[in-house]
Sequence to fold (531 residues):
Amino acid sequence: MSSPRPAAHFIAYQGRFRLFGLSLDDCIKVFFGGNAVVSIIVLALITIFLFREGAGFFGQNNENLTVYRRAGLEYVDFIRAQQDDHSALTRYLSDLRLRELRYYTQEKKLDLAAANAALAPFDDFAGQYSDAVDPIRSLVSDLTDQATAIKEKFTIAEDHRTQKAQLLAAGKQAEADAVVVQQIDFAAELKPIVGSLPAYREASAQFAKQLATVVAAAPAMPDPALQARLERFKQLNAEYLAGFPAIEQKLATWDSQKPVPVSEGFTAFIFGRSWLTASFWQDWYGVIPLLVGSIMVSLVALLIAVPLGVGAAIYINQIASPLEQKFIKPCIEFISAIPSVVLGFFGIAVLGQLLRALSQVSWLSWVPGFPYSERLNILTAGCLLALIAVPTIFTLAEDALNNVPRAFKEASFALGATRLQTIIRIIVPASLSGIISAVLLGLGRVIGETMVVLLCAGNRIAIPDFTAGLAVVTQPVHTMTGIIAQEMGEVVHGSIHYRALFVVGILLFFLSLVINYLAQGVVRRYRISIG
Fold:
């Protein structure tokens, strides 16, 4: 008599198996269902942790801005902005001098000594323009010392207040009584600062008169293009002088007791254009430069990775021979196994230097931004991120191409279409939703990358100069992931800086969530259309 078939034996065994009253089917369901529950719990814990640690930031930022106003720092910064705008115009003149020097050495073929001699009138003009700000600079220096002294008193008083509260909470009444909390009379402390308005009016009038005199005597440029830039400078200077009355009006109407709106702590972060920490003057937590840096690097990466990834997927899926598929496909997918820190080292040691050397080649001078000196910039980081994104885009795009019904291809051939026509007009349009999904998931992959951008993006916290056009990609930037990795290990737990980094993490979390949601939506639409 033959033995029972294995399948029947297993079914009989399955019926007898019990674990805590559960059948084998129930245990399998619990196991796989439990894994899903654990994933949901982990995601919930991460979300709760992010919001718990970052939730207090906006209140702390509002208090930070309140101290900034009450200590008089805001008042001084009105005048400092006037000084900083003058510095920007001085940098414009420095760039104009560089262009004029290049004109003399390259167009007129003068040696460096002769070129500098020809530039002497311009240097004298630029020097007088730069020195004209001295009355304002001197006033800002004096007011800065006074405002920082008020802020320091307030900081010490707050530290003593915190120390006293901790001692009282610990039941150490005697020690708490020994801690003296100084009460700051902001109105009295601010009198010397607010009383400087007449001195500012005098310094500003002298400054404006000096600028007008200097600009009126500006030397003529030796080239029409350079003269056009000088005329543009004169226009910018006129606009700058026209803003002086507005600054004086702000100083005259400034009120240190005016409350800072609750929403200011939020808007200063979302729309802030400065990220400045550990400053003796004022800490600023504005996410715009970090967000712009992340977007710029990701866009450069996608511009490189999408053609390579999608093109490779089309070639492997539709054109390549089986031998080519066995060789090329594993090579592309192996890129994802390379640690990102290794790619970062490669960017610092090889790619950044190579691209900078390439930018110095004379016959490539027509490329926007070439030549450039910063080897770590948007372009370097974008190229490496593209290398990271290619395997993701390639794999998902190829899956989308595989899911196109074979009947579409056969029908196209039957109608007399060539292979190229079939790929362009039938296969790619039919898989377009899946390809878009691959691109979005590739974007999610690069926007969350840390080590490559931390090592290769240049880490300059500033909004790139978009007036440079396409040359903007040769400028250094910082990113949201990079700032978290760079600063999280140095911050004090619970401080405003600590919580600001968590809020950046929350923003990054939401960006990744939105990108993945869009990608999943495209996938669902793709599946419905194929079905």
